[in-house]
């Protein structure tokens, strides 16, 4: 069941029955969707940390109804829009509310937002190595290049893009490597640990690195990143 997150102004503008009636309307119109809602405070604001944490527990599309503070909207989008569809709409009736929900659910089901394929693969590679504690050192701290696109984090369908991605990550020092038996092994660069966790947390790279993941034209659904953990800010 998809979870949908809706933010309402404190004074509901849909009819005269308030937020509860609007939520009940959505539950009737979309019985297969789990509706979770928040109500803004009198300043048209909400707790960004609490809201994004709630969404992160069971990811789903986000619909924020106007009026809402622009700074709040910007911060929510910064935290979530690379992972999930986030829409902001001015709604004046139940029909418009249901139409907006229908649109954003369709975006979520179709895999939006779309991200560059190589960017997705790069993040999956970092996450797989991090999950395996591959930070160099002894032989167990490295992974054979051929073993990276073999499931358990990096699907085999990406095997044609993995060599290019590994090369870029190596050139920009996110990875280290060593030869063994005529083949290459890779590990995360422990000296760049803060940068690696920042890339995983934000799901993006510094511009010099990130633009190299934009050259390949193919896009991939951001849904392939749904199983990545939530990496805390400042993790070392």
CATH superfamily of the largest domain: Dehydroquinase, class II
- The whole-number mean of residue pLDDT values reads 91
Give me the oligomer status.
single chain
Tally of separate domains: 2
Shape: elongated
Residue ranges: pLDDT <50 for 5 or more in a row?
Answer: none
Within the CATH hierarchy, at the fold level, what is the topology of the largest domain?
Rossmann fold
Q: What order do the SSEs take from the amino end to the carboxyl end, as H and E?
A: EHEHEHEHEHEHEEHHE
Which class of secondary structure composition applies to the elements?
alpha/beta
Question: How would you portray this structure in words?
Answer:
By secondary structure, the protein is α/β, with parallel strands linked by helices. It folds into two domains: 2-112, 3-Layer(aba) Sandwich (Rossmann fold), CATH 3.40.50; 115-225, Winged helix-like DNA-binding domain superfamily/Winged helix DNA-binding domain (Arc Repressor Mutant, subunit A), CATH 1.10.10.10. The chain contains eight helices and nine strands. It has helices spanning 18-29, 48-57, 70-80, 94-109, 117-131, 162-171, 193-202, 207-210; strands spanning 2-8, 33-39, 62-65, 86-89, 114-116, 143-144, 175-180, 183-188, 219-221. Strands 2-1-3-4 form a four-stranded parallel sheet, with helices on both faces. Helix 1 links the parallel strand 1 (2-8) and strand 2. Helix 1 (18-29) packs across helix 4 (94-109) and helix 5 packs across helix 6. The longest helix is centred in the middle third of the chain and has 16 residues, at 94-109. It is elongated, with a radius of gyration of 21 Å. The model has no long low-confidence stretch (mean pLDDT 91).
